[in-house]
Amino acid sequence: MIRADNCFGDAVVSGKMRLTTLAVLFTAIASGGSGAELQYGRKVGEQFAYRVEISAEMADEITSYKGVTRYTIDEVSAEQVRMTYQGGLSESTKRKASSRSSLPFGPRFGPFGPGGVPSPFSRPTFAGKIQTTNKITMSRRGNVLALKGDSQLPFLLGNVSLLPFEVLSTGDKREWLADSGVSITQEQEGYRPFGRFGPFGGDDEKSIQAGSEKTEYVIESDSPTAVVIKKSYQLSSPKAGNQPAYEFTGTGTWTFNPSDGMPQASDFAAKLVVDENNTKTTIPISIKYHRLSPEEIAKLDSEAEQAKRDREMAVAKAKEAAEAPLTANERSEALAALRSGDSDKVLKSLERLGKKSPKEADPEVAATIQPLLNDPSKKIQEVASKTLAKWSPEYKLKYELNKAYDSHMPVKATGRTVTESTPLYVGQLVAAKLYASWFAAEILELRPDGKVLVRKRGFAPREHTLSRQDIQLAPDELDQPQKPTPLASTTPVLRTWSDATGKFKVEATFVKVADGKVTIRRTGGREVEVPIAKLSAEDQRFIEAQQAKSSGGENPFE
Question: Phi and psi (nearest 5°) for 471?
Fold first, then answer.
């Protein structure tokens, strides 16, 4: 399986790729030489580490990538070496003093100019910019045979895990050439084993972009522990449809240690030229790394272990402080501040209480926070909600449900199935079965055919038409902002009516009042008009209450 990685475009191509052409020509040019054949890997279990520094100079800023990468030799055979990589480079950006750019969203790239699109090199999705691990299998001469995992870097730099490795010569030749030509169509998924810097692939799912890659090596000096090799690199990728043309060239030295079969150091200066819309952008790039000594590795490990202990101690102290109960004075001050009506005092008290993780609920603290959920200040509402979840186990359930149903992440199935007779309403929050999982969704439409149109909640909302069996009711504890207000009951209230003397009584419901008389409906259905003055005082008060309810102004619908 082959994967074409376009490290230059807005996204690394990740789809199905099909290798249509892969012709690799390797030529060893004899110039005399001595010594044993250079090969990777000598001993299983050996560990190596490199300090890597890369910089790319844009028009208005310099982007740097720095870090330590590690390798452990897992297996060595006559033909192959297999190793485990661990590491990643941290990214930093420094604005040039001469830059006059004031664009709010970072640097603009080359031909797009001001008002164009953001630099594709600034996106955060490159795996080489975080700590990750790879499994690498390559031939003893450095041809990558398999790569499990991703450590891609921006600026066409390829995988950081492959950065130290170059193709070695056959025999004891002092000059050799690695030359390859490729053509890739997006159809299968895999990794790109050729080229450290190639831009092959494109943002268009059906685009094809061909290119050629050539690396020349010349041994300048050699010793039992260091073979210094001059490296000259050239990558050319012409325009293909809407894809720009790339030229990546550079020279430098690469040092290989034949005693343990691993690279020692590299100092490489390159230049990336992008030609798009007849405008060329040049980006100087520097790539340096050197192998750390066992003492340096031991020091790094010691510092890392100490940093880990410090973090664990800090976490333990923070946990202890958070779980410590409030003192009587702290509790009194907190309650007074919450009840003060002073927004600053209220907010500060909420934030202090929010840092606590009480082992036991405090009903008084919770009851004092509760009214702040409806505070005029949105900020106070937000902080009060987070804080109340700490002090009220009952509210915590509601808070976590609301948070889950606001997210784009899957939610738990509720098991509250929806049938044809289950009442639903527009705006209702439900769990919807999408992509074989349950997600929070909002009902947009109840269709005549029984289908339900919903919109997935959270990031990148999308609409889906589902059958009722793919919907489950949300838990009752979840807030339903669009829930219809229940209508007042229109069922007449049956009550006992009495005359002023209390001698005569009847069971009936109120109908209306007109001209000093009340109309009531007896249980048999017969309506009777009775002068209000002849009724008991309690009945007259009931009639006044009914008249007050209906005195809300003229009804425009009658």
Answer: -130, 140
